[in-house]
Amino acid sequence: MPAAVRFGVNYTPSEGWFHHWLDFDLDAVRADLDSVAALGMDHIRVFPLWPHFQPNRTLIRPRAVEDLVRLVDAAAERGLDVNVDGLQGHLSSFDFLPAWTRTWHRRNLFTDPDVLDGQAAYLRTLAAALADSPNFLGLTLGNEVNQFSAAPHPDPDRATAAQVDAWLERMLTACEKGAPGKLHLHAEYDATWYQDDMPFTPAQAARHGALTAVHSWVFNGTAQRHGHASVPARHHAAYLVELSKAWAGRPDRPVWLQEVGAPAPLVPAEHAAEFAEATVAAALDCPDLWGITWWCSHDVSRGLADFPELEYSLGLLTSDRRPKDIARALTRAARDHRESGSGTRFPARAPAPRTTALVVPADPAARSRCAPGGDVFDAFFALTADGARPTTVLDTRAADPDHLAARSITEAVTPDQVLRTPRGGTSP
């Protein structure tokens, strides 16, 4: 039997949110992790706030690093592996960037030599501090750092794709120097796949790092256009997993569904559990899926101000650590997947190859075709509704028999071929 897909959560502390690093309380963290472990999860993703850990370019606070190690150790005591995000960066609509990169010290996050030196030193330090922890999975460079590089950010740090390429190589090298052999990666929000002028490209996402990470949020126009119970909404995460494979350097590259959630009111609370089950079932039907990490563990306390409304209710657990219906749904899915054979909704068997491939443009300036409303997006879900289980292939590879054979693809179809042919399934 193949290794089971990993199930985990993005850890949002119930007390103080990520500001808990300012007043780190190990007992509160332990209580949070107990509530996560009780859900049957096997890993968490955690978020040090970069300005708190490295308030000056040449000062990485030893106490903050020690607190991170203590959190990782507490997770180990509860059977939880840990991925650590480094450059935080951006979280839940707030930016957390150190003062030595802003205003009077304004320097580009991706190109300034001094900033790069500071970032590399910080990532290397975090990795080295955790390298000997057996439950440390590796570092993610940061949370959706691509949002700093282009619009719609109000003050972007502009960079070219070549400069981003160099930045990724240097930062991942720093992680590897600190903790050799771990799963070090980078992760962006879906503008990497959908936004024509985004300097973080699909090829970078699918080729740099130990695996590909995708973040799936249906508030990107999917739920607005199609509704929360639609084929596109319930299969959006699977779409991103399969879309990423068009650019991968090797056919078996693992993909991590590193963020996915049920944002209200687009996904009403009474339908969140059903949405989660459908999303997980669709994702588990994708070959080479490494893991599913739900956003997020605990609700944001209503005592904290100025969050977008949807951020307060994304937790599997309330801010007083009580599980919701969606938590119980994820628990059932994880348990059934680990324990089941092939006859359940969440089978532990390896999915069959996806033999039909939708042709997608290799040109990054045409990425909007893959976004909600684009012809690639619409064609993928027309095929999905028709039961075809599609994957994707670049237009530059669609006639390469060796590439198609390596991926078990027997049919490559273009969006116009799909959209002009009446389908037998349910309309997306």
Features:
428 residues; alpha/beta; TIM Barrel; 13 strands; globular
SSE map:
Blueprint: E1 6-10, H1 26-37, E2 43-46, H2 50-53, H3 62-77, E3 81-85, E4 90-91, E5 94-95, H4 113-130, E6 136-143, H5 161-178, E7 185-187, H6 191-194, H7 202-207, E8 212-216, H8 222-226, H9 231-234, H10 236-244, E9 255-260, H11 272-284, E10 289-294, H12 325-339, E11 356-360, H13 375-385, E12 391-394, H14 401-406, E13 411-413, H15 415-419
Helix pairs in contact: 1-3, 3-4, 4-5, 10-11, 11-12
Organism: Streptomyces naganishii JCM 4654
Protein name: Glycosyl hydrolase
InterPro entries: GH (IPR017853)
Order of helices and strands: EHEHHEEEHEHEHHEHHHEHEHEHEHEH
Strand content is 5-15%
> What count of domains describes the coordinates?
2
| Shape label | globular
Helix content: 25-40%
Total helix count?
A: 15
Uncertain residue segments: none
Distance between the termini: 34 Å
- Per CATH, the superfamily of the largest domain is Glycosidases
Number of strands: 13
CATH topology of the largest domain: TIM Barrel
